[in-house]
Amino acid sequence: MQFTDRKGITPLLILLLLASGLRASAQPQELTLTQCLTLAEAKSPRSVRAQLQALLARQQKQEALRNLLPTVSALGGYTETNSPLYAPILDNSENGAVGVSYDGFPFSPKWYERERLDALSRAARYAKIQTKQDVALTVESLYFSILNNQDAVADLNKVEERFNRLRLTVIPRYTMGRAPPFDLIQVKSSLADLARLRDLLSVQLETDETQLALILGLSPNNGLGLKPISALPAIPSFSYGQVEGSPALASLKAQADAAKMGLKEARGQRYPQLVANYQYGYGGPTMKDTIVGHVLSVGLRLNIFDWGQISSRIRQNQTSVSLADNALTAKEQALTAAFARANAQAQADLAEMKRLEALLPESRRSAQSTVERYRRGAATILEATGAMQIWLNALLGERAAYYSYLQDLAAMQDLTGQGGPAAARIYE
User: Considering the chain, what is the average pLDDT of its residues?
Assistant: First the structure.
């Protein structure tokens, strides 16, 4: 039977090459934390929405700035009538002119409107920065959680292997009638607990990987490989005063400035408004009698009675100013409290990690020696499984404290406005 084509390449070889290529392409790409943060900054819907909001605010500011410039317009008309009353004046009359009008003189509300929109544009710009840092904090939390769960599953597998060895040691005694049934039940119960914990970790791991892939703009079905982290950065020398550099506070300060400009704009409605208009062109009662000339007019407009509309607008803006100031104070207090909590939590997690890290060798040796003593009949099954459980708890606790410490550092960076891809290099 011939399986070779005319070029001498077997179809079976082609299929094998294609299959190997598919397997290679199916392997998840290993991403660093900095790469994840960079992708999230560009792909995350929250980041994109914040960028669009900042762009919209900047466009509105530009429109308000152009409203302060003179308006140039062209005017033209032609009139024809058969009315005996107006025919001598309007019949076949025409006119055309170029006009310039301006109402942006000092004390005009348009100046305060421009300053208000300028403050809102700054607020949107700071909000965009804060949103990017919030997205970065979410990505870091998911990244650390995924690595923690992966390490936990690996530790579970390591301890489960020891439990399976212990189960193999118990089974011959049970079948020979020299081991109480409780020993085998105890080992199986411990293995069942490990299996249940692994299932919970697998669910959490899949959930975090899916959420992180969606934030990064990747397909959740392709798998997500993350580069492990082994660095142990020290707690930065942050101070409570650095919370004032948070983009969230800067955004609220700009919103407070915008509210104050809105109040000035409302009060400006009571000031006299100067309006100027200039036209140059031709016109006349008939086409034969058109002349060229210009018209200059200057007017002063003053609101005398408006049924309390301006007063109501002023009171609303005064309330808006009070709300903006209150929001700024509340946010500053919340950031200061969150910073203190994150700083204290980081120190506690670092101390916990070091304690458990020192306990790991002792707990591992204790588990091994207790199992050996059980095999020699010098220890009970409860002592053996208890020692194994203590070792597992030390393994899981040390990894949990480590990644919790990294999460605390990321939170402190976010609170002080120092988060983002550049700040993530301390973890690599």
Answer: 80
Question: Looking at the domain assignment, is residue 238 inside a domain?
Answer: yes
CATH number of the domain to which 388 belongs: 1.20.1600.10
d(CA 415, CA 242): 9
DSSP one-letter code for 378:
S
CA distance 152 to 355: 18
Contact 304, 109 (CB under 8 A): no
What integer pLDDT is reported at residue 245 of this predicted model?
A: 79
Residue 265 included in any domain: yes
**Tell me, what's the pLDDT at 325?**
92
Question: DSSP string of 314-364?
Answer: HHHHHHHHHHHHHHHHHHHHHHHHHHHHHHHHHHHHHHHHHHHHHHHHHHH
> What is the value of pTM for the model shown?
0.77
Per residue in 178-218, pLDDT (tens digit) is 545 777 888 889 899 999 999 999 999 999 999 999 998 88
Domain region containing 257: 29-70+106-271+335-427
Lowest-confidence pick of 136-145, 168-177, 410-419: 168-177
Do the domain assignments include residue 65? yes
Domain assignment of residue 308, yes or no: no
Exposed e or buried b for every residue in 60-78, given b needs 16+ CB within 10 A? bbeebeebeeeeeeeeeee
Number of domains the chain contains: 1
CB burial class (10 A; 0-12, 13-18, 19+) of residue 370? buried
